Amino acid sequence: MKISEKSCSLRDVLDIIGGKWSMPIIYMLSKGTMRFKELERSIEGINTRMLVKELKNMELNGILTRQVFATVPPTVEYTLTNKGEKLLPSIVSLHNWGQEFAS
C-alpha cells in the first residue's frame, strides 16, 4: 500500500496527538473530567510547562475542552470532547502493540 501525502492525513494526526504527552493526557481524561493539578500529578514525568503546551494544542484541535471557574485561585477543568473520545480505541491498540512488541 502506497501512501501519498495528498490523500493521507497521518501527518495531520501526528501534529495533533504526536507529542510525547498527548496520549497519556487523553488516556487520563478518558476516566472523566480532571483539574489541572490532578492531571499534572497523574502523569509521571510531565512538567507544568509541557502540560500547558499539550493542553493548549489539544484544545485548539478540539480534542478537549477547558472550563474555567471564577474562584480564587481560578479552577480549571479539562474534559475530552467527542472527537477526543474517538481516539481512545486507537490509543488502546497502540498501547497493546507496545506491550507485545516494545517491551
Structure overview:
This protein has 103 residues and is of the alpha+beta class. It has a single domain, classed as Winged helix-like DNA-binding domain superfamily/Winged helix DNA-binding domain (Arc Repressor Mutant, subunit A), CATH 1.10.10. The protein has six helices and three strands; from the N terminus they run ααβααββαα. A three-stranded antiparallel β-sheet has the order 1-3-2. It is globular, with a radius of gyration of 15 Å.
User: What class would the helix/strand composition place it in?
Assistant: alpha+beta
Distance between the termini: 28 Å
Report the sheet-strand fraction: 5-15%
Can you identify the CATH superfamily? Winged helix-like DNA-binding domain superfamily/Winged helix DNA-binding domain
Specify the number of helices: 6
- Biggest sheet strand order reads 1-3-2
Number of domains: 1
Mean pLDDT: 90
CATH architecture: Orthogonal Bundle
Shape: globular
CATH class: Mainly Alpha
Poorly predicted regions are none
Helix-residue proportion: 40-55%
Biggest sheet architecture: 3 strands, antiparallel
Q: Please give the number of β-strands.
A: 3
User: Nearest-angstrom radius of gyration?
Assistant: 15 Å
Spell out the helices and strands N to C. Answer: HHEHHEEHH
| CATH topology title | Arc Repressor Mutant, subunit A
